[in-house]
Structure prediction request, 406 residues.
Amino acid sequence: MYHLECIECGKRHTKADVVYTCSKCGGLLDVIYDYSTIELDMDKIKKQCPSVWKYREMLPVDENQEPISIEEGGTPLYKCDRLADRIGIKGLYVKHEGLNPTGSFKDRGMTVGVSKAIELGMKTVACASTGNTSASLGIYGARAGIPAVVLLPEGKVALGKVAQALMHGAKVLSLRGNFDEALVLVRQLCDEEKFYLLNSVNPYRLEGQKTIGFEIIDQLDFNVPDRVMLPVGNAGNITAIYKGFKEFMNMRLTEKIPKMTGIQSEGAAPIVKAYQNKQNDITPETHPDTIATAIRIGNPVNAKKALKAIYESKGLADTVNDDEIVQAQKDLAQLEGIGVEPASASSVAGLKKLVDEGIIGKDETVVCVTTGHLLKDPQEVVDMCPKPVVVDATIESIRKAVFEDK
Ligand code: F0G
Prediction:
C-alpha cells in the first residue's frame, strides 16, 4: 500500500498516475507507505544475501509485475583499515557500488524504475545523464525489450559510460549543452511524447536506491554507523539512502540514523553553498566544472530533499578539489584494491579533509559510498597515472626497467 505525496503541499497522487512532480504545485514527490500493512519476514531479512529485490515488500512495484532485473545490489561493504590509518579514523567502511552489474549504483534505481515503466504500460524510457544513468537505462531498456533515449552533454561523458549506452542499443543524443540543460529538455520530451522519464526526479527510481541504506545496516548486523558519506550531483542518492535509513527506523529495525554527509566538487557545489548559508534550496550554478564529470551539475533537481536529509540527520555538506579527488582515488586503489571513478572518490576525499579539519571525529564509524567503477573513466586514469614503460624484448631490458627507480 503506497501513494505519491508532494513534499511541498502534501497533494496525493495515486500509484496509477504517471507523474514526476506535483500536478498542483510542481513540488517533488515522495513514495509514502502504510507501514502498518508491511509485514517483513525478519528471518529472510537476516539470512538472505543482500540484493535490491530482497526488500521487495518495501518497494513500490506491484506483486504481479515481474521485476526487470540483472541481479543488482548486494555490493560489498569493505572494512578498510589501511585507508582508515592513512586518514586517521577508527572505523572506515567502503560500500562499493561500482560492483553493480553495469558498474554504478544507478542499477538499483533502474531495476525499480524500469519495472515500474512496464507496470504502467509505458513504451519508451528516457533520461538526461552525465553518463552512468544512461548506461544503466540502456541496459535495463534492453532487458525490458523497450527503446531507451538518452541525452548526454557533448564531450563531457566518460568513455566507458558512452560505450555501454551505445552497445546496449540506446538512442544516444550528444547535446550541445550541459547536463542541466539536457534534463530540462528531456523532461519536455517525455511530457510531449509520453516517454517514461527515469531521472532521479522520478520518485520510484529513488526507491530502488534506498536499498543502499538497507544493505549498509544489514551488512553491519543491524548496527548503525555514525556517518554515511557520498558524492552529490543531482542529489537523488543522498535523499534515497536517507529514506532507506528512515524507513528501517520507522519499522523499528534500528534506533538512529547516520549523519548524511554530502560531498561536491569545488567547481560544482550548489548544495554545499546552500548548506553553508543555512538555506533550504539552492541557487543554480550556470557553469559547473570538475574532473568528476559524473557530478558536473549546477542545478540539482533533488536539492530540497537532499538538504532536508542533511539537516534532519545532523549531517553536513562540503567540497573537495580535483587534486584531492585524484589522491583519494589513488589511495582507494592502492591501499585497498578498490577501483573507482573520480566522482566516487570524492566521498573519501571529503572524509580526509573533514578529519584533518577536526570536523569529523577520529572515533566515528564512517561508511563512504563509492558510486561508480574505475573502468567507467579509463581516460582519466591514463591522464593521471605514469605511462607504461616500453621495453625491448630482452631480459636485460626488462630487468633494467623493473629496478629503474630502486
Ligand atoms: N557518483 C556517480 C558515479 C554518478 O554517476 C552520480 C550521478 C553521482 C555520484 C551523484 O549522484 O546525482 O544522485 O547525487 N550521476 C548522474 C548520471 C547524474 O547521469 O549518471 P546523485
In short: The CA atoms of residues 239 and 309 lie 6 Å apart.
